[in-house]
Design goal:
Blueprint lengths: L1 E10 L4 E10 L4 E5 L10 H6 L13 H8 L2 H4 L3 E4 L3 H9 L16 E2 H7 L15 H23 L1
Parallel strand pairs: 1-4, 4-5
Antiparallel strand pairs: 1-2, 2-3
C-alpha cells in the first residue's frame, strides 16, 4: 500500500517538532492530525506566515502515534511504501512519533521514497501546481499523490 505523506514542523537545526501530518493512502483513505503538544511559540516567522494560518485547531488525537500506526497498519492494508516531496524531515518527524528508528511499527520500511529525487531522475519535469493550500499537511499529501501520478504517467511514456 502506497502512502503519500507531508508534515509541517518547527525546526531549529537541532530538533524537529511536528506541527501537523497529512497522509493519503493508495486506496483513497486520508488522515490529518495536528500535534496538540507542539509549542507554536517556537515557530519561525516563516512558519507563522505559511503554516499556522492553515491549522484547523480543535482537539487532536491523544496518541498520534497510535492513530498513524492504525491508519498504515500492514496487517490490514498491506506492506506500506511511503512517498514524500523533499521528504527527509517529513520522514524524521513521522518516525519520531514512535521513538527511535528501530521502534517503527513492525512491517514498516526504515526509509521514505522521494518524489523530488524521482523527478530529477526523469529529467526534472515541471510538476503540477500546488495551489493556495500549500503548507497544509493534508493538502500537500494530496498534491504528493498528484505529483506521483504525473511522474508515473511520464515514466510509462518514456518507457513505452
Amino acid at each position: 500500500m502506497k502512502y503519500w505523506l507531508d508534515t509541517e514542523f518547527i525546526e531549529d537545526g537541532r530538533t524537529i517538532d511536528l506541527i501537523s501530518i497529512g497522509i493519503v493512502a493508495e486506496d483513497g483513505r486520508e488522515f490529518y492530525a495536528e500535534n496538540m503538544e507542539c509549542d507554536l511559540s517556537r515557530a519561525s516567522d516563516w512558519v507563522r506566515e505559511n503554516v499556522i494560518p492553515h491549522l484547523e485547531g480543535g482537539d487532536g488525537p491523544t496518541d498520534l502515534s497510535a492513530e498513524v500506526r492504525a491508519f498504515c497498519d500492514p496487517d490490514q492494508h498491506g506492506k506500506p511504501e511511503f512517498w514524500g516531496y523533499y521528504a527527509d524531515y517529513d520522514w524524521v518527524a513521522l518516525c519520531q512519533l514512535f521513538g527511535r528508528m528501530v521502534d517503527l511499527p513492525k512491517g514498516w520500511p526504515m526509509y521514505c521514497r522521494d518524489i523530488k529525487q524521482w523527478a530529477d531522475q526523469l529529467g526534472n519535469p515541471r510538476l503540477p501546481e500546488q495551489g493556495k493550500d500549500e503548507h497544509h499537511a493534508l493538502a500537500d499529501a494530496q498534491w504528493n499523490r498528484r505529483a506521483w501520478d504525473f511522474l508515473t504517467a511520464l515514466a510509462r511514456h518514456k518507457d513505452g
